[in-house]
Every structure is written in structure tokens, then in C-alpha cells.
Amino acid sequence: MKILGFIIQKEFIQIIRNRALLPMMTLLPIIQLIILSNAASNEVKNVNLVIVEKDYSESSRLLIRKINANDRISIVKTTFNSKDAFDHLQANKADIVLEIPSDFEKDYRRGEQPKLQMLVNAINGQQSTVGSGYLKNIISSFNLELIEEVAPLTSGSQLTISSRNWYNPEINYPHFMAPGILAELTALLTIVLSAMNVVREREIGTIEQINVTPIKKWQFIVGKLVPFLCIGMVLLTVGLIASKLIFDIPIRGNIGLIFFYAIFNLIAVLGLGLLISNFADTQQQAIFVAFFFVIIFVLMCGLFTPIDSMPKWAQKLTIPNPLAHFISVSRKVLMKGSGFWDIRWEFIYTIILAVVFNTLAIWSYRKRI
Amino acid sequence: MSAISVHNVSKSYGEILALNNLSFSIEDGELFGLIGPDGAGKSTLFRILTTLLIADKGEAYVAGHHVVDDYKSIRQKVGYMPGRFSLYQDLSVEENLSFFATIFRTTIEENYHLVKDIYVQLEPFKTRPAGKLSGGMKQKLALCCALIHKPEVLFLDEPTTGVDAVSRVEFWDMLKSLKEKGIAILVSTPYMDEASLCDRIALIQDGNILKIDKPQHMIRDFDKPLFAVTTSETYKVLKFLRNAQFTASALPFGSSIHLTTSFPVKPSEIKHYVERTGIPVDDVSPVEATIEDVFLELSNKKTI
To answer: Per-residue pLDDT tens for B55-98?
Structure first.
């Protein structure tokens, strides 16, 4: 035990002596947290619209006025020339082209069904889906008003749907992103730091001296793990405080539960980092392999793409991804106020991962060359 | 019981044979030198004996323990100073020493008597990070760290490489006093002049041991007449001498040429003989053989 204590003490001294490392570990993640939580948003705030107006009737003007009233849609241009509108689409100046055919009003009054055409620039999937959604909403409400005007008697039996967003009523993106990004940053920083660590001893040559001592494998690995676990917890604390102060994120559940879960998660992630470190000969190799995992973990953790919308095989792949569980836990606990029982599966998976990664790390650490 | 005994040890790295069937033994309290150029296999042998590497063939015992079957016992009992500085550069002198003391379950105080002579020189810098010490100081600290757990056998892989002349002399003085405390020391060096400071030496080249003996005996057994030839035209003279009928060997030696002859010749005759061709010769004089001469002689014999 005393030996382990000394190894941990040594690691702490080395971390504190490394002047570049401390600000890197505290300041950089907070900057990332602030930038990413604000910028990495799926919200579509501005849709550029070009209207091809061929009718010039009262109804068409009414529709255009209604569209104009929506602050998320800006009408870039109104023209009567289809080709001109299409050029805008081609030049990426318009997201959507709405064509109002001639005789729009006349057909409508006659009780026929006039057709509005919507051309959507689908290069940016998000922008096009959400934007056309906005537009369809406006058009259907316009349609309702028009029906009432044209045939007021039939309007009594309209079906209306009202929806409400639970847990994040205003769909406040920072509220949604910040807990996820916080989990991501904590895990990423620790995986990179730990992956670099053992290999650094190999590069400098200190490992050769250590290997000819009676230090046991598990003492060496645990001695590496504990200091980084502490750093990860500090980072999580600082990040949570920053998110609360800056974004006023909701903390509905038991904050202690997050910290308790984070211990297991960080142990799992650190185990993977040390495992990488054992197999790499240079820090360069270690960082490349670590990045390989980091990128997969980040893109498949549910932060940017919902796990539910991934193909089945990819959904399965998120099970060995510690980051996915961490993000799920932090969102559930912070936003939904979930208790231990609600996140039991995350706990179980994470503990399995922690055991597997660390066993492999101890097993693969060779005291021989 | 021998401190180290090696029986028919071989080790290859792929195609390259690093150690070829080595056998030797080192007694308790003996200062044994492994002398050979870079790439001779010295470090490989050290790694096998310090249980970091497994030999392909042969057996080796350190402090009575088998290097493979009983490696854990060996790690308790040996001190190892790798060829490359292997202490924590960002830890201070004192922190390094107490770290290595602790992982061997001992304290600096307990074995202070062993390192005292060396540590007093380091004491003024004890709060300085190890990476900021001079080359000689680094080696002294490394020696302290290798000694702090009172090892029975000490392995020093090229401890004086890259160290200034004064520090080298000091370092060897320390080894002598450690030897008197009964610690067996295996030291390797590429410097032939350090060989005479060892009790016994093994000359090693390309994974083969050329000769094992006391350095004094090696010099005594060097029976051919030896001359130092100094000239400004080293290359020309060397070429010319190699074809002379009295020459046994002519090899460049520092700034001069060391010439051995197969029968007694007077130095003035040699000078005369060369000068007749018009190449200037400054001096020819008989000299005492050194370990380097022995080594060159043996390695020369091998290549021929």
C-alpha cells in the first residue's frame, strides 16, 4: 500500500510540475464547453426563401405577408421568373423556392385544389427539413384561414394537435448540449492524458529503471490511474459550475449521482488510455490510436446524432462506447432528474467496460522488453 | 557461489546475432568489466541479466537466482543503471532517491552509509530537478538510486559514456569503494583505458567474448614487440608498413600508429626503412601495450 501511495504521489508531483499541463487541463475544456454548447446547435434560425409569384392576387399577397411575418424565414427575393429563382437555388443563395402558380386564387375560389410548389435545397439536410417544416406550417395555417373564409360552415370539425416539449420546454440548445459536451470533454481529456503517460516513460527511458524494481504490474497501473481520475473529477466539477453559471443548465437530479457514476466512467476510459499506451512505442503512435477511438466515440455517442436514428448495428456499437453512457447519464440526471434505478443499465455497462479495459491494461503491461 | 554465472547464452534479433554462446562468471565482490565497442552486445547482455529480456538459448543466474524462473527475486536484489539516463527528470534529486528507496521498501536513512560518499556531492543540489544536473552529476544520482536498496549485484551499463574526464575518475573511485563493501559489479564501457581499473575484464565484439582475464595479465601476455610510429602522413605510412616483411600488424591508434612486429626490430631501423621511400616519419619508439592493443590484436586476428 505504501508503495502505491508513493507511486501516486510521484505522478501528482510530475503533473503539478508540468506547467503547460495544468492550464491545458482546466482552461481549454471550459473554453470548448462555452464555444461548443453555443455553436453546436441543431436549431435552424434562418431559412432563405425565394418566392416565384405568378398570381399577383390578394390571396398570394396574404400568403407572402404571413411568411414574411415569421422571423425564421427571410424572403431573399420575389420574382415571377422560375429560372431566376432556380439560379438562386443553384448559387446557394436560397434554401427553398416557393412557387405560387398563376390562377392560384381563382382555382381556390372555384373549389379546385391549386398546387404550390416547393423546391428545397437539400445540400444541408438539417436546414432543408426544418425549413420546409416551417414553411409547411405557415401554409397549412394559411390554408385553414382561407377555408374558414371560403367555406366557414365546414370548419367546425378541424383536428388540432398541440405539443409541448418536456424537460426542455424552450428547446434551449445549450441546456441540451452542455451536459453532453461536459461529459465528452471529461472523458476525452482523460483518455488522451492517460494514453500519453506510460508511453512517455517508455520514450524517456524511465520505464527500464522501473521494470527492474519489485513494483507490481497492478501497482504501476493503479498508480497511473488514480491521479488522472482526480483530474477528471476536478474537471467535471469545474465544468458543471461553469455550465450552471454561464448557461444556467437545470440540475434536476442528484448531482452526487453524476459524480458517483463519473468515477466508474473515468476508470473505464482511463483503462482504455493505459491499454493504448502499453501498445504504443512513441507518444506519436499513442496519440494517433487515441484519436482513432476518440473520433468514433464522439461521433457515435449521441451528442450530435441521436443514437435512435442510427442503423441497428451502429446502435449496438454504442454499448462499448463509455462516452455514450456518460452523456446519457448526465442528460438524464441533469435534465430529467432521473434516479439511480433509471440509469442502472448505464452503470452496469460502464462497470463491465471498466473491468475489461483495466484488466487488459494490467495484463498487457509487460515488465520485460 | 558466484554473483553472476552465464552459461552458453545466445540471443538474436531477427537475423542479427547479438550474443553468441557466452559463458562466464563473476564472483562476489568482484569488479568485472565488459569492454567492447558500440553494438558488441553489451546492453543486450545487461538486459538478459536484469530480467528485462529473455535469452534464446542458455542459462544465467544472478545472485543465485535463475533469470527467467526466479526473476522476481532478482529484481529485489540487483541495482541497475541503464545506459540511458532513466530517472525522472522532472523530479528533484531528493525525490528521485526517496522514490527508488520506497519502491524497494526501504528508506534513504537505512542505507545512507552506502551512498553517503556519492550523495554528499549531490546534496547541495538536492532540490534541483534531475534533468537539470550536469552529465557527471546525473550519473552519480543514477548510481545512488541503483544502490539505495543495498543490492547484492550492481549492473552499470556504460556509466561513464558522455561524462567528463574528471567525473569519470571520480566515478571509478566510487566503484572501487563499493566493491570493498562486497557488492559484485558488472560494468560495461567502450573506453579501453577504464579496463585496467577492473579486477577482471571480458573483451567482447560482435556478440563474442574474445578473451576474459585480469587486465594486467592481458597486457603481460602481449608478447610481441610494440612500437608507436608518429608521422604527419599517417595513411601512407600505414599502407607502407602493412606490406613490410617485419610487420605483424599496423593499426591506427589515436594520432599515431601502433606497430607490432613478428621478430625483434630496432626502432631506428623501422624509421630508416620508411624514410627511404621519402615519407617523413617524426618518431618511432617502443611502447608498453595497453588493453586497446590487446583488443585490436584479438579482433584483428578474428577478422583475418
So the answer is: 999 999 999 999 999 988 999 999 999 988 899 999 999 999 99
Can you give the pLDDT at residue A369?
A: 58
0.80 cut: is pTM over it?
A: no
**What's the CATH number for B223-288?**
3.30.70.100
Q: Are residues A152 and A203 in the same domain?
A: no
Residue of A nearest to B143 (CA): A209
**Does A214 contact B99 at a Cβ distance shorter than 8 Å?**
no
Residue from B71, B88, B153 whose CB has the most chain A CBs within 10 Å, to mutate: B88
Percent of chain B surpassing pLDDT 90: 43
- If 0-12 CB within 10 Å is exposed, 13-18 middle and 19+ buried, where does residue B245 land? exposed
Q: What is the ipTM score, two decimals? A: 0.79
Quick check: helix, strand or coil at residue A236? helix
Minimum distance, in Å, between the CA of residue B53 and any CA atom of chain A: 6
**CB-based contact, B99 to chain A, within 8 Å:** yes
Q: Which three cell numbers stand for residue B51?
A: 530480467
Give one DSSP letter per residue of A75-105, joined into a string.
Answer: EEEEES-HHHHHHHHHTTS-SEEEEE-TTHH
Q: Tell me the chain B residues in contact with residue A207 when contact means C-beta distances shorter than 8 Å.
A: 86
Which of 3.40.50.300, 3.40.1190.20, 3.10.180.10, 1.10.10.10 would CATH assign to domain B2-214?
A: 3.40.50.300
> What are the extents of the domains in chain B?
2-214, 223-288
Return the C-alpha cell found at A6.
508513493
Q: Are residues A137 and A198 in the same domain?
A: no
Is residue A164 a part of any domain in this protein?
no
